[in-house]
Specification:
heterodimer; A: about 120 residues; mainly beta; seven-stranded mixed beta sheet; four-stranded antiparallel beta sheet; 11 strands; B: about 120 residues; six-stranded mixed beta sheet; 12 strands; globular
Chain lengths: ~120, ~120
């Protein structure tokens, strides 16, 4: 089985722009979660989706949004980019939720740099 | 409040030494899950183990072992006979069951950088 695929791997943007990151989960996985990793704040939960519905959202401003498509692929969007948005964005997928006894598997991440 | 504490920021050992990475967690839920992930320099988080709050049995997988103690809210990870390939950042994480287990949200510790010298 192919793993979680995130595209692009690297991205450079300037302040004020917007960006869309993509995540293709492992085949058969219906749950997708997004995390932001920075040296200062560590790994922080952004949001999670299941069957095209956002189930949970972390403490991030409204500039961060996401969606999930019917094939379980997910995208996250960040508008009006700020320098502090520079981070590694990680996507994780699983078959269901924790009670399904399935762990999440992570992709390689998208490294976003804001100039 | 939910929290995961990894007090060891960096650990440096020489190959073949045993090393223990500490993890202490806080949660009000009675049902929760604990995890360890490894992050090599490439960036991907590699799943190592998951335990639920009702299973306090220790686990051994090759050179890796985990000690879960609810009484001290700890979930420590030991690598026996460490190797250079074990060098990475290791994260401990907590997931609460939420309503009917319907969440995969992970709360991560700050990670421990393990450097294994040849």
């Amino acid at each position: 089985k192919a793993g979680v695929t995130q595209t692009p791997r690297y991205l450079i943007k300037t302040r004020g722009q917007q960006v869309t990151l993509s995540c293709s989960p492992i085949s058969g996985h219906r749950s997708v979660s997004w995390y932001q990793q920075t040296p200062g704040q560590g790994l922080q939960f952004l949001f999670e989706y299941f069957s095209e519905t956002q189930r949970n959202k972390g403490n991030f401003p409204g500039r961060f949004s996401g969606r999930q498509f019917s094939n379980s692929r997910s995208e996250m969007n960040v508008s009006t980019l700020e320098l502090g948005d520079s981070a590694l964005y990680l996507c994780a997928s699983s078959e269901g939720f924790q009670d399904s006894n399935q762990p999440q598997h992570f992709g390689d991440g998208t490294r976003l740099s804001i100039l | 409040a939910q929290k995961v504490t990894q007090a060891q920021t960096e650990i440096s050992v020489v190959e073949k030494e045993d090393v223990t990475l500490d993890c202490v967690y806080e949660t009000r839920d009675t049902t929760y899950y604990l995890f360890w992930y490894k992050q090599p320099p490439s960036g991907e988080l590699v799943f190592l183990i998951r335990r639920n709050s009702f299973d306090e049995q220790n686990e051994i997988s090759g050179r890796y072992s985990w000690n879960f103690q609810k009484s001290t809210s700890s979930f420590n990870f030991t690598i026996t006979a460490s190797q250079v390939v074990d060098s990475a950042v290791y994260f401990c994480a907590l997931s609460e069951a939420g309503y009917g287990g319907a969440t995969n949200k992970l709360i991560f510790g700050t990670g421990t950088l393990l450097a294994v010298q040849p």
